[in-house]
Each structure stands twice: as C-alpha cells, then as structure tokens.
Design brief:
By secondary structure, this protein is α+β, with helices and mostly antiparallel strands. It contains 3 helices and 6 strands. The chain has helices at residues 44-66, 100-107, 121-126; strands spanning 13-14, 20-23, 29-32, 74-83, 88-97, 117-118. Strands 1-2-3 form a 3-stranded antiparallel sheet, with no helix packed on it. Strands 4-5-6 form a 3-stranded antiparallel sheet.
Length: 128
Amino acid sequence: MSDFPILYTTQAVNEDGIEGHAYIPNGLEVAVSSPLKAVPGSNPEQLIGLALSTCLNATLEAIEKEHGQTHQSKVVTTVKMSRDRFGYQFFLMLGSRFRKWMLKRQHGGSRLRKRVVPLPSSLGHQLT
C-alpha cells in the first residue's frame, strides 16, 4: 500500500463480453459492443477515449483555477485500432486546446508537439 491515502475507489464490471452490458455497481450501466460490428452500444475504445479526455481536461481545469482563469480548455482523444500479425494494436492521440497564457507560463511559449505512441504488440496479442 502506498504512503498516500486513497481518495476514491470504483469498480467496473463486465459479465457479458464484447456484446452486452458493462456497469458500475449501484451506478452507471452501458450497452457495449464491438467497434467492428454495426451493433448498438459503446465500444471499449470509445470509453477509454472518454476517460482519458475527462481526466486530462480535469487536470487542465485545475491548472486554470489555480491561476484564477475561467475553464476554457478542450481535450480531444482519438483512439485507433489496427491489426498486426500478433493481434490488435491501439493508438491513442490526445489533443488539447487552451488559452495562450498556459503555454507561455508552463512551456515558455514553446509549441506543444504531437506524439503518437502505440501500445506494445504484446498487449494487442493478449487481447485477441
């Protein structure tokens, strides 16, 4: 256990697999489906994108608040799935838009670089 106190804990449950429902006990329930089939429901890639966008934008919002600024940031997450010889690969791209004062203050006015980092093929192989 860490030296830091746990501030929040949640559980997510999926008993149905790729087509069915996933849920938070006593909370949210979501219909889930494969991104490769025309079946109603959200797919795991969409849910990962929502989680990452929300987490990063919450961080940017805290920075804005810390500096007395109104919340104006926007985060867009793109999740791409590809197949390779071992299985699937997933590519995550996060883009953000925020006020220029944040760039100047945090990065000396430098431009942020776009970076694509694929997950290792070994992870994709485990998901097949």
